[in-house]
Design goal:
Blueprint: H1 8-20, H2 26-34, E1 55-56, E2 62-63, H3 66-75, E3 83-87, H4 93-99, E4 104-109, H5 112-124, E5 130-134, E6 147-152, H6 161-164, E7 167-177, E8 184-192, E9 195-204
Parallel strand pairs: 3-4, 3-6, 4-5, 6-7
Antiparallel strand pairs: 1-2, 7-8, 8-9
Bound molecules: S-adenosyl-L-homocysteine.
Residues 61-64, 87-88, 90-91, 93-94, 108-111, 114, 136-138, 153-154, 207, 209-211 line the site of S-adenosyl-L-homocysteine.
Length: 217
């Protein structure tokens, strides 16, 4: 059951904070309003679900800060028909937000525990256009893709060609690029007919993207 602490006043503050920090896309704001973040955090953190902060989840990973989720989503300029790839399912929260704005979302995670829990949460919250896959996002099988949009939610030292190759013309990829432990820069790549256009956006902190399926659960 939801406690009164998660009632409308807290959700109203949540929206206000996002607007104040510069999120202006109405569809993105609505998506964040509609997805129950308390369903994606650990049970003991439900009271903090609508605070603008990252929180710990299983396997030593994190659910991103709502502002960062909103900002990255806004930068993707999603349309209803888009096919989206997310690297780093984590809790499934970002995927749930994407599912409200895109046609289909494939999200990949290297921890089985996280992939299974996220799949369950996404089902419970009615996100039936999301597919969760246990896979290494740094080494995806060639047959996967192409995509209109790619969002990476784990820090990469550089963006592998194995990912940019899956981006359609006019496609957008967004990823935190930089050292694994420290501050990264959110980078946006747009595939034009003549190549990739690169823009650096804001500083962020993400857990690292690591190779291979995790050996622990
Ligand atoms: N988007 C998530 C937060 C991501 S945290 C959310 O909304 O909750 C980053 C996630 O990326 C972690 O769960 C981590 O296990 C995963 N990850 C790291 N490297 C990966 C890789 N190579 N392939 C797939 N997932 C990876």
């Amino acid at each position: 059951m939801m406690s009164s602490r998660q009632g409308p006043p807290e959700k109203m503050m949540f929206q206000l904070t996002l607007r104040r920090r510069g999120i202006s896309d109405q569809a993105v704001l609505r998506a964040l309003e509609e997805v129950p973040r308390e369903a994606f955090v650990e049970e003991g953190d439900r009271a903090d679900a609508y605070r603008d902060s990252a929180l710990g989840i299983a396997c030593g990973q994190t659910i991103s800060q709502p502002f960062v989720v909103a900002y990255m989503t806004e930068q993707l300029h999603l349309r209803r028909h888009h096919r989206v790839l997310e690297i780093g399912t984590g809790s499934g929260y970002q995927a749930a937000v994407l599912s409200r704005l895109a046609g289909h979302v494939l999200t990949v995670e290297r921890f089985r525990t996280l992939a299974d829990a996220a799949r369950r949460r996404l089902e419970q919250t009615g996100c039936d256009n999301v597919e969760v896959m246990l896979a290494d996002g740094l080494n995806l099988p060639a047959k996967i893709g192409p995509f209109d949009r790619i969002i990476v939610t784990a820090a990469m030292e550089n963006i592998p060609e194995n990912l940019t190759d899956r981006l359609e013309t006019d496609g957008i990829l967004i990823a935190p690029v930089g050292p694994h432990h420290g501050v990264q820069t959110l980078v946006r790549l747009v595939r034009t007919k003549s190549g990739l256009e690169r823009k650096e956006l804001v500083d962020v902190r993400f857990v690292p993207a690591l190779p291979g399926i995790a050996r622990e659960l």
